Amino acid sequence: MTKSPSFETLSPDVIVASIENHLGIYLDGMITPYNSYVNRVYGIQDEDGKRYIVKYYRPGRWSKECILEEHTFIRNCEDNEIPVIPPLELGNGTTLGEAGGIYFSVFPFRSGRTFDISGEDDWNRLGTIVGRMHRAGRNETAFRRPVCSPLETTAPQIEKLTSGGLIPDGCLEDFIHVCEATREIIDPLFEGVETIRIHGDCHRGNILDRIEEGLLLIDFDDMMTGPPVQDLWLLLPGHLFECPAEMELLLQGYARFSDFDRETLTLVEPLRFMRLIHFLTWCATQKDDHSFQHHFPDWGTEAFWIKEIEDLRYQQRMIREQLSF
């Protein structure tokens, strides 16, 4: 039986060889690992001191076509003068290489710091860059990326969590009940909602401030087709009812470049529930990784699932409260 590709095969020799062969350069041998929850990301440098970031995609997560749709979106953003970091074209004529059955891309290194919000103008700036990105997102369609909706993403994720023996018997019924009850509430809210290409994980950690140059959007790995509001609510410091002023400032900046359907603000708390399910599914995918077990030693225990169910119940209450306004 052929062994599935694994990050365990990414030795320094494999990393250096894969980059040198695909880019036609020589590296100085220094490899700096970066924190990444899903993929493996490293900083490298050539003999002339030019720095790069190489990202090895988690095996089995995305097909080649899915990754190339991400790269296309980034290129579309660049073509529209939106500050992003497109992947480099490799020696094979594409932006995607392969090493030991693992896909990878190489990006030029760009430094920056997390954007610190200090006033109303900063919220406007965040809204503006998302609005610009969404204007580019509307220009084409992604056919292979996930669709952000309860039916097309959350339902399969719930099925995966409840059918794989992941949840202890004493917690399974409660987990199923809170998920089914919440889906009865949120599923109709997504009917007829506009969906476009979006970043998908547009929190402030994925927006760098380059001081002299402005804001920079990074890490499109979770790019999807979904409602535009998905890329706005993640920027908020709390629940929507706790920060209406911040959302209003985001929308003021956003409206300079893209139209926004304010009725879709009712999706904010449902999307937060869906993100909780998404995170649990991501964890389930990686639960056997040594690195994951080191950082999350209690994941999957009965105490863990009791807490997760309480968090889901709390989020269900937040959805009901939002819809009652």
Topology of this structure?
Elements: H1 12-23, E1 32-34, E2 40-45, E3 51-56, H2 64-79, E4 97-99, E5 102-108, E6 113-114, H3 120-137, H4 150-163, H5 169-186, E7 196-198, E8 207-209, E9 215-217, E10 224-226, H6 230-233, H7 244-254, H8 268-286, H9 290-295, H10 302-324
Antiparallel strand pairs: 1-2, 2-3, 3-5, 4-5, 6-8, 7-10, 8-9
Describe the structure.
By secondary structure, the chain is of the alpha+beta class. The chain folds into two domains: 7-110, 2-Layer Sandwich (Phosphorylase Kinase, domain 1), CATH 3.30.200; 120-324, Transferase(Phosphotransferase), domain 1 (Orthogonal Bundle). Helices cover 43% and strands 12% of the residues. The protein has helices at residues 12-23, 64-79, 120-137, 150-163, 169-186, 230-233, 244-254, 268-286, 290-295, 302-324; strands at 32-34, 40-45, 51-56, 97-99, 102-108, 113-114, 196-198, 207-209, 215-217, 224-226. Strands 1-2-3-5-4 form a five-stranded antiparallel beta sheet, covered by helices on one side. Strands 6-8-9 form a three-stranded antiparallel beta sheet, with helices on one face. The longest helix has 23 residues, at 302-324. The chain is globular and about 60 Å long. The N and C termini lie far apart (57 Å).
Percent strand: 5-15%
Contiguous uncertain segments of 5+ residues: none
Our count of domains comes out at 2
Radius of gyration: 21 Å
Q: CATH fold name of the largest domain, please?
A: Transferase(Phosphotransferase), domain 1
Sequence of strands across the biggest β-sheet: 1-2-3-5-4
How many helix segments? 10
Question: What pattern of helices and strands is seen along the backbone?
Answer: HEEEHEEEHHHEEEEHHHHH
